[in-house]
Specification:
Layout (H helix, E strand, L loop, with lengths): L22 H21 L5 H23 L5 H30 L5 H12 L3 H8 L17 H28 L3 H33 L5 H10 L15 H20 L12 H13 L8 H5 L2 H8 L1 H19 L5 H28 L2 H4 L2 H35 L1 H4 L38 E2 L9 H5 L1 E3 L8 E6 L1 H6 L4 H6 L3 E6 L15 H17 L3 E5 L1 E2 L7 E2 L6 H7 L4 E4 L9 H6 L9 E2 L12 H8 L4 E4 L2 H4 L4 E2 L2 E2 L2 E2 L9 H6 L1 H10 L5
Parallel strand pairs: 3-4, 3-5, 5-8, 8-10
Antiparallel strand pairs: 1-2, 2-4, 6-7, 9-11, 12-13
Helix pairs in contact: 1-2, 1-9, 1-12, 1-13, 1-14, 2-6, 2-8, 3-4, 3-6, 3-13, 3-14, 3-16, 4-5, 4-16, 5-6, 6-7, 7-8, 9-10, 13-14
Length: 690
């Protein structure tokens, strides 16, 4: 491809180095993945190995494309995509299908549907976004909500970059041709801009929303762009025999020490992927700049040794395999950590299976002459891999969803939920005493409160953090609006308002953000993120002036007694003074133990019922007097669902053939919807006017 020649063309940059085979970088890649495995199994820390792996992948990718640009050859991004995903997908299909089989055989039904969803997201290269939507915290200890396919978050980011980077190089080639500027200069400018922008966003996002930033592609792009910039640095020339530079030898070992020591010396899980990720990348850069020293004392001598070469050969397979083996083993045995013996067995089995996967699937497909002969053949392999992976995953989802739909169809008769606690309740004559509980075991972990759709038109918030968690039911255009605000627990509680709102022709709007209980002007344990969000929600309420606002007015975190919420000091009085009715929901109880895990472990409903400490959550809500005083000034309506969530101060796993708790801290949306009649009764008793 011609780049054009200008009259006053700038002096050329040094020729882009030919990458060739850098044996020490191959070993470094193996070391990076080895550190990931060791730290996952034994230290429960972030090693920085994944960052190095992403960094090096961009280094190799950039070198080949820039050389094509300089030689005037077609960049052929479609052919590149075919070759790349032909190589990546077949091993992934084997690992994912094997993981699904292990989940089906060894883990409880509540894990099945999330695992199937993760499988589809992994094949489509969007697993990182799936984890963000699900609210996954990378730092959290392994529980049944931990995805056995969580390792695909980085593979998905890498896949997205493999799709994006060739397009950026095409753009650079077009700009170079149009302006007469050398293509390498254009690439340098573009990659430098990406480094600066993405790194700045990574630091900001990590400080305010680290669990999201960890999986966010845009917060990771700078690592790839930095690897692309490294591709322009000339490789260190091999030294004359016996004349290795002492500086280069020291630089190589210093780089290795920095990389290995990142996770050992720094417990920096909550700091990644911000500025702290610079440390392992600087270590990798030291190894790169050290190059091939030719010295028996050089770090490259270690990295090119047989163990590290083998580790580099199986690095991709090892990364894919070790995580499901670790998580499924821990979840199936109920252990919090592997320990020395089990950890060693997990690593040994991971190494053996990774070697077999590389030998039988990865290497044969990678070197398959027929598939490599033409892009269309590579695409055929990609298509076949997707069919083999997506077919069983989507098919199993359909089966589980149909079972759930059938159970929902019978719910009126078989799953009355909280309605059985009503003194006037009469069992349905067609009720099946053997009917499965709702939500079904397979869909339990995904039973989060959902309304019909996003907030649109006049209801759409201007602030992103508010808009992201805004949902609305369908209603007439001029319908009155009730807005429920709060955290994930309020998200579940708000489901109790759907039935009475719809019955009276109102629209229900839910604004929630995980871990952000609605306390405007109060710095909660989540810090600035929730502080800013709650202020923005309050501004939204002031502007919208809804016909009612529902919020939790007590606080209970499972430790210590339930207390009145700070919203009673300023927020509720402001709304009352503005004539906006406030529905004051008592915060729901938390179960002392996870009833779902208890049932899945073989316990019965009696064994899995836990008493609620009356000193923590008394029968009379702690904000009753304050609410009564506020009610004298304006419309304040108390709703207390404790009697139907934990009747007689006992938290049962199921009521009315509906599971009450999805975990220790959250009620199921299905059960909360069944409390709509009780909410309607309490609102009527308090004088609420629909």
């Amino acid at each position: 491809m011609s780049t054009g020649v200008g009259r006053h063309r700038a002096a050329p940059l040094p020729a882009a180095p030919a990458v060739g085979h850098r044996a020490e970088l191959h070993g470094l890649r193996g070391l990076a993945i080895g550190l990931v495995v060791l730290y996952h199994v034994f230290l429960d820390r972030v090693s920085g190995g994944v960052d190095v792996f992403l960094f090096l992948s961009a280094f190799f990718l950039t070198g080949s494309f820039v050389r094509r640009m300089e030689d005037g050859r077609a960049l052929a991004p479609v052919a590149y995509w075919a070759r790349t995903f032909k190589r990546l997908l077949p091993p992934a299909v084997v690992v994912v299908l094997g993981t699904l089989a292990a989940v089906r055989l060894l883990l409880p039904p509540s894990t099945w549907m999330p695992s199937l969803q993760d499988a589809v997201a992994s094949f489509l290269q969007v697993q990182n976004w799936q984890l963000i939507v699900r609210g996954t915290d990378y730092e959290a200890a392994a529980t049944l909500s931990t995805s056995p396919m969580q390792q695909f978050w980085s593979m998905s980011i890498q896949g997205q970059v493999f799709l994006l980077w060739p397009l950026l190089f095409v753009l650079c080639a077009v700009i170079a041709r149009a302006t007469g500027v050398g293509p390498r200069r254009v690439v340098l400018v573009l990659m430098s801009a990406i480094v600066l922008a993405s790194f700045a966003w990574s630091v900001i996002s990590t400080s305010s929303q680290q669990p999201i930033a960890y999986f966010d592609t845009t917060a990771r792009l700078w690592e790839f762009a930095a690897g692309s910039l490294l591709a322009f640095w000339p490789a260190a020339a091999p030294p004359s025999p016996g004349r290795a530079s002492a500086f280069r030898i020291l630089l190589g070992w210093a780089g290795l020490a920095v990389l290995v020591g990142t996770g050992i010396l720094l417990d920096a899980r909550s700091l990644f992927p911000g500025w702290i990720a610079l440390i392992p990348l600087l270590g990798a850069t030291g190894v790169f700049l050290s190059g091939s020293t030719g010295s028996r004392w050089g770090a490259d001598r270690l990295l090119t040794s047989r163990p590290f070469t083998l580790l580099g050969d199986i690095s991709y397979s090892l990364y894919l395999i070790h995580w499901p083996i670790l998580t499924v083993t821990l979840l199936a045995t109920g252990r919090e950590s592997a320990g020395p013996l089990l950890g060693a067995l997990i690593i040994a089995s991971s190494l053996v299976l990774a070697r077999l996967l590389t030998q039988w699937i990865d290497a044969p497909v990678r070197h398959w002459r027929w598939a490599n002969a033409a892009p269309m053949r590579s695409w055929a392999v990609v298509a076949l891999a997707l069919v083999m992976g997506l077919g069983p995953s989507l098919g199993a989802q359909v089966v589980l969803e149909r079972a759930e739909q059938e159970a929902q169809r019978r719910a009126v008769a078989d799953n009355p939920g909280a309605r059985v606690l009503d003194s006037d309740f009469v069992p349905h004559p067609d009720a099946d005493p053997q009917a499965a509980s709702l939500p079904t075991d397979e869909s339990l972990s995904g039973d989060w409160g959902m309304l019909d759709g996003p907030c649109e038109g006049d209801l759409k918030p201007e602030v992103d953090s508010v808009a992201e968690g805004c949902q609305s039911t369908e209603a007439a255009e001029n319908a009155k609006v009730i807005v429920a605000v709060g955290n994930s627990r309020m998200r579940q509680s708000a489901m109790s308002l759907i039935e009475p709102a719809e019955r009276n022709g109102w629209r229900l709007v839910l604004i929630h953000r995980n871990s952000c209980q609605f306390m405007p002007g109060v710095m909660t344990y989540k810090g600035q993120e929730c502080y800013d969000h709650n202020l923005a929600v309050m501004d939204y309420l002031r502007e919208l002036q809804p016909d009612a606002v529902a919020m939790n007015t007590t606080v209970y975190r499972g430790v210590g007694p339930e207390t009145p919420s700070p919203v009673l000091d300023e927020t509720v009085p402001e709304l009352v003074d503005a004539g906006v009715p406030v529905i004051a929901l008592r915060t729901p109880p938390r179960s002392a133990e996870d009833p779902v895990s208890c049932l899945e472990a073989g316990g019965n409903e009696v064994d899995c019922t836990t008493p609620l400490d009356p000193e923590h959550m008394p029968e009379v809500r702690p904000d009753a007097e304050r609410l009564a005083a506020l009610a004298a000034q304006g419309p304040v309506h108390q709703i207390d669902l404790l009697p139907v969530l934990c009747p007689e101060h006992e938290c049962r796993p199921r009521i009315g053939n509906v599971t009450v708790f999805m975990d220790k801290d959250h009620n199921t949306a299905t059960y909360m919807r069944s409390t709509g009649g009780e909410v309607a009764r309490q609102l009527e008793d308090s004088g609420f006017l629909w």
